[in-house]
């Protein structure tokens, strides 16, 4: 396939890297010469330096022949205009990254489909959804819903006491269980493996299963995992992601949110009715101790500073929190 990627920041760069390894014809463009230089030196792609919202630059990239155009700059308005231009020039499918979720609300004046966009991705919304799933399933490394939540794909790290350690896929299939599940892939030492019938599971494998949601608890028992319910979480950072996670979970469990800005903390307190808002520094060990962080089921760091997220996450882990979720945008 021929794919044009507009915007070669962290997201665009790694999307281009992944797609170029699958033998697609990739063209990337960006107005920033340093980002273009990085792509030229590191990726097997064609690089076009220029404004992705310009019809002339898009024509230079032969966007009219593209199977997909991915608009991934950090500016929503640029992505909208670039999508519209690519659509007018004849691109087959257009995917746009939009940070402002109001564009896809029912009463929005500006509709993405009017710009020729086939699929909208809200990065903060996607991050929130993944964090919420991980909190609800703290025993998993990854969770995805299918068929409206009736089926789940779940990643489980196999501990040394897991009953399936040393068993092959054939032996597992031969067991008479009261429920059915599929084994999709296994991650071992950083490499993915398709588990054929003679594949033997080992300690520290991360296995990915697909199962009906109603049978998930039975699968966890079979794998030797305790499907414990999350009752208490602490969120560091009143960012868009932090607010969204709190709103999603505050009626299910105890939620505390820490922010170091007093004005934002006051605003959060007036808008998140069921969440306890704490004004303070999440990297302050004494503050974390005073909040009994060791008793929390999950500690989620989603500030705008990656350094703060990493440091506070490590501190919380050291203090004994059961699960730590750290938001990092730079890979």
From TrEMBL:
Limits of the RCK N-terminal domain: 1-121, 230-331
* Gene3D superfamilies from the UniProt entry: NAD(P)-binding Rossmann-like Domain, Regulator of K+ conductance, C-terminal domain
| PANTHER family, A to Z | POTASSIUM CHANNEL PROTEIN 2-RELATED-RELATED (PTHR43833), TRK SYSTEM POTASSIUM UPTAKE PROTEIN TRKA (PTHR43833:SF5)
Isomerase among the record's keywords?
A: no
Which Pfam families is this protein grouped with?
A: TrkA_N
Which NCBIfam families does its entry note?
PRK09496.3-2
What does the UniProt keyword field contain? Answer: Ion transport, NAD, Potassium, Potassium transport, Transport
- Limits of the RCK C-terminal domain: 141-225
State if Ligase is listed as a keyword: no
Q: What GO terms fall under cellular component here?
A: plasma membrane
Recall the GO molecular function terms of this protein's record.
potassium ion transmembrane transporter activity
| Protein name according to UniProt | Trk system potassium uptake protein TrkA
Q: Which organism is it from?
A: marine metagenome
């Amino acid at each position: 396939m021929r794919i044009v990627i507009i915007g070669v920041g962290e997201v665009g760069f790694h999307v281009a890297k992944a797609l170029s390894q699958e033998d697609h014809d990739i063209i990337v463009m960006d107005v920033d010469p340093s980002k273009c230089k990085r792509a030229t030196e590191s990726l097997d792609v064609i690089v076009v330096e220029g404004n992705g919202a310009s019809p002339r630059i898009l024509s230079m990239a032969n966007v009219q022949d593209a199977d997909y155009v991915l608009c991934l700059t950090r500016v929503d308005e640029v992505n909208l205009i670039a999508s519209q231009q690519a659509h007018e020039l004849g691109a087959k499918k257009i995917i746009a990254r939009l940070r402002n979720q109001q564009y896809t609300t029912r009463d929005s004046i500006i509709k993405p489909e009017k710009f020729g966009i086939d699929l909208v991705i809200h990065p903060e919304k996607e991050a929130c959804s993944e964090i919420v799933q991980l909190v609800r399933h703290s025993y998993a490394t990854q969770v995805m819903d299918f068929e409206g939540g009736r089926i789940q794909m779940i990643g489980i790290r196999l501990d040394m006491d897991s009953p399936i350690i040393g068993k092959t896929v054939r032996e597992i299939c031969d067991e008479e269980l009261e429920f059915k599940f599929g084994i999709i892939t296994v991650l071992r030492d950083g490499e993915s493996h398709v588990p054929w019938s003679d594949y033997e599971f080992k300690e520290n494998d991360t296995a990915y299963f697909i199962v009906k949601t109603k049978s998930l608890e039975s699968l966890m028992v079979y794998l030797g995992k305790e499907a414990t319910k999350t009752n208490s979480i602490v969120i560091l950072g009143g960012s868009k992601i932090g607010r969204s996670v709190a709103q999603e979970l505050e009626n299910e469990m105890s939620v505390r949110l820490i922010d170091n800005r007093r004005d934002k903390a006051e605003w959060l307190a007036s808008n998140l009715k069921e969440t306890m808002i704490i004004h303070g520094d999440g990297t302050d060990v004494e503050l974390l101790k005073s909040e009994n962080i060791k008793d929390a089921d999950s500690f989620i760091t989603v500030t705008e500073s990656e350094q703060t997220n990493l440091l506070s996450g490590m501190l919380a882990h050291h203090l004994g929190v059961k699960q730590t979720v750290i938001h990092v945008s730079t890979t």
